[in-house]
Specification:
single chain; 8-stranded mixed sheet; 5 helices; alpha+beta; 2,3-Dihydroxybiphenyl 1,2-Dioxygenase, domain 1; binds fe (ii) ion
Length: 301
C-alpha cells in the first residue's frame, strides 16, 4: 500500500486576491513566491514550493483543491493505481505546468473534492524554522456526510489510517511523523471545516493569536490544547471568512502509538480542551466551518 507523505498545499478561490494575499503575507506571515495569471502563491518556512495558492474566484469563494505530497515517482504511480481502483478512471500522472512544476495527477473523490497527488516539485533548500512564521499545512479538516465511505477512500486510495476517533472527528495519519494530516468531521455536507497552519513553537502560536487580534481578527475559539494530537490551537475567520487555524506542538508518533476511541477522548462536562481556559467557540466559527465547498465543475487542473 502506497501512502501520501502529507498535505503540500491548499488552494482557495477568493473574491479579492490582492486583499487576501496581503493578509496571508503580512499578518499570517507566509512569504509570497510567485504570481501567475492573477493567482498568488505563498510558502511557509518548510521545503514545499508553496503551501497556499489564492486564485480569483469565478463564482463564490471556495476551496479549489488539496495537493498531497506523493513522495517519488514510483510512489505516485502506485497511488495513481490505488486512486483509479477507488474512484474509477483517472488521467495518468504527467508533468505539471504550474508554479513549482512537478509530476502528478488530479481527480475528484466520491464526495466531489478536488485532489492532486504530486512529486518532483521545485522545493526550497532554506528550511530553518523562523519564529512567528508557519512551516506548513498541519492538517485539513474536511466535513463529510458519509464519513465511513470517506475514511475508506482516504485509506484505500491515499494510504491513510484512522489513528484516533472522537465523538465527532476521525483523525487520519499518513506516511509522516505527524499524528494526523487529514481530519474528517462527521457532518451533513461535503465542505471544508478548516485548514491548520503549523507554527514552530508555542510562543509563535500565542503571538500569532495576538497578532490576529491586533489586526482585527478576533479569536473564534482558543487558545487551547486539543486531546487527540495534543496540539495547541487558535481558530479564526480569515479573509472572506475562510476558516483557518494556527497550531503548534503537534504530537509526533511512531508505529508504537496506541489509538483510542470516543470514550477515551471525552472531556469532562464544560470542557472542550485540555486547559479549560478558552471560552466555547463563537457562533461565527460554527457558521464558517461548514460554509465553503470545493470548486464545482470538472476543473481539477
Ligand atoms: Fe484543526
Amino acid at each position: 500500500m502506497a501512502a501520501v507523505r502529507g498535505v503540500r498545499s491548499i488552494e482557495m478561490d477568493v473574491a479579492n486576491v490582492d486583499r487576501a494575499a496581503t493578509f496571508y503575507a503580512r499578518v499570517w506571515n507566509l512569504t509570497e513566491v510567485e504570481r501567475r495569471n492573477g493567482s498568488v502563491y505563498l510558502r511557509g518556512t518548510g521545503r514545499y514550493h508553496h503551501i497556499l495558492a489564492l486564485h480569483p474566484a469565478k463564482g463564490h469563494p471556495a476551496f479549489r483543491r488539496m495537493v498531497f505530497d506523493g513522495g517519488d515517482r514510483r510512489s505516485v504511480e502506485a497511488l495513481h493505481a490505488q486512486v483509479t481502483k477507488a474512484v474509477g478512471k483517472v488521467a495518468a500522472p504527467q508533468a505539471l505546468d504550474w508554479p513549482g512544476g512537478g509530476w502528478g495527477f488530479g481527480f475528484k473523490d466520491a464526495e466531489k473534492r478536488n485532489i492532486f497527488v504530486v512529486c518532483d516539485v521545485a522545493d526550497h533548500k532554506d528550511v530553518a524554522d523562523v519564529s512567528d512564521r508557519p512551516r506548513k499545512i498541519a492538517h485539513v479538516n474536511v466535513n463529510s456526510a458519509n464519513h465511513n465511505a470517506c475514511v475508506q477512500f482516504f485509506s484505500d486510495a491515499l494510504g491513510f489510517r484512522v489513528i484516533d476517533e472522537t465523538g465527532g472527528l476521525l483523525f487520519m495519519h499518513c506516511d509522516n511523523a505527524d499524528h494526523n494530516s487529514i481530519v474528517i468531521s462527521k457532518d451533513s455536507r461535503e465542505t471544508v471545516n478548516h485548514v491548520a497552519f503549523e507554527m514552530p513553537d508555542l510562543d509563535s502560536v500565542m503571538r500569532g493569536a495576538g497578532r490576529m487580534k491586533d489586526n482585527g481578527y478576533p479569536i473564534e475559539w482558543g487558545v487551547g490544547r486539543h486531546g487527540a494530537g495534543n496540539n495547541v490551537f487558535a481558530y479564526f475567520a480569515g479573509p472572506e471568512e475562510f476558516p483557518i487555524e494556527i497550531t503548534g506542538d503537534v504530537m509526533q508518533v511512531g508505529p508504537d502509538y496506541v489509538s483510542h476511541g470516543p470514550d477515551f477522548w471525552k472531556f469532562p462536562p464544560g470542557r472542550a480542551d485540555q486547559w479549560g481556559v478558552t471560552a466555547p467557540h463563537s457562533q461565527r466559527w460554527k457558521r464558517i466551518q461548514d460554509m465553503f465547498g470545493f470548486s464545482e465543475g470538472g476543473d481539477v487542473t
